[in-house]
Amino acid sequence: MAGVLTLIFIISCLNLLLSHRCSSHPLCTNFRAPFTSKTPLSFCQYNGSICCNATEDLKLRNQFKSMNVSVSACASVLKSILCSRCDQFSAELYRIDSAQRTVPVLCNSSISTSSSQSQAKVDYCAEVWDKCHNVSIINSPFALQAKGGIQINTTSKLTELWQSKGAFCDEFGGASDDGATCFTGGPILLNSSENISPPSGICLEKIGNGSYLNMVAQPEGSNRVFLSNQAGKLWLATVPEQGSGEILGIDEPNPFLDLTDEVHADAALGLLGIAFHPNFQQNGRFFASFNCDKVRWPGCSGRCSCNSDVGCDPSNLSSDNGAQPCQYHSVITEFTANSTTLNLSLVTQIRPVEVRRILTMGLPFTSQHGGQILFGPKDGYLYIMMGDGGGSGDPYNFSQNKRSLLGKIMRLDIDTIPS
């Protein structure tokens, strides 16, 4: 499920990128928007909106040094090519909508350049060949692309891999026939007379490896958020300042809460929802919605998801994916941030001790559970979403029956529930 959402996010970004090739919009190779650095880069001389921070700039410097290029003219163009990853249009230059490249598309005089660049004929690809074709380059990015990304530890020359300038530029040059961007040796700038309209739709950013199901902001309004995965772990993360170029900071080895001993994770089972009490800063109350297996975890118990008068006698339901009806349960549980600190915004970890059970409900099948939980922004109620419990087409009409809690949104007056 998380993988599908991640794929949708990436496709959305690529659709926006591809639909605006003639009037390119800045985008970095990591699918992030360019940012303005507070300090200038020391190696790659890019200013304004860029796609590299100081750490990435240092990495490019070290890569350049490791090539050990002895000819200054060739060294100059190689430095420009490496630093093109810092360009605000690096996603275009490296064609992230297809296979990742190790070298940007080099402008070739045989094809007109993009509207985002000078309309003059530019043959930068030929310039690279002329200056570097007979120069030894250690771990050449050209060789890496030619070999499909396989690491090459030996020194190589362009003439050892391509027989002519034409053959070299057939692989690395061009790409202006469709209005796309190519590299001329320096930063790509929009023409001042060009009127760029914003892209339609939205572009969502991939976080981590796509394994998180929920993201909830910490209630006090700081830059801290909580991310949970399906297996039952919840992490505290720090969102970087806008425009800083930094990545989301997650301490993977040390989760804020670990419920993997209680949670049963499978294709459609797991930790499905998290919610903080609106007064979390004062009371430390925290809620989780997850699935459990009564066979594996004795604490997973409760009545069947629908009572007998609506036809949910477990003995009358067929098994599903090897599971018996009511073997798995949906559980809404309250936890507390047990800590000696008085400032709960500084709490980094809580013990997985259940304070009280809000709801336990057996499930007739192994899919379609819902599980999202949210606090109303003004009324203080906890809203609980439930799917229809599975089965093709809701065969027992659980969603349509008001006696069943399946296929419903429930609302609790949370502060008056007895402890």
Automatic annotation (TrEMBL):
Domain of life where this protein originates: Eukaryota
UniProt keyword terms in alphabetical order: Signal
The UniProt record lists the keyword Signal: yes
Glucose/Sorbosone dehydrogenase domain: residues covered: 223-415
Pfam families the UniProt entry points to: GSDH
SUPFAM superfamilies, alphabetized: Soluble quinoprotein glucose dehydrogenase (SSF50952)
Signal peptide: 1-24
Protein name according to UniProt: Glucose/Sorbosone dehydrogenase domain-containing protein
Species this protein is from: Gossypium stocksii
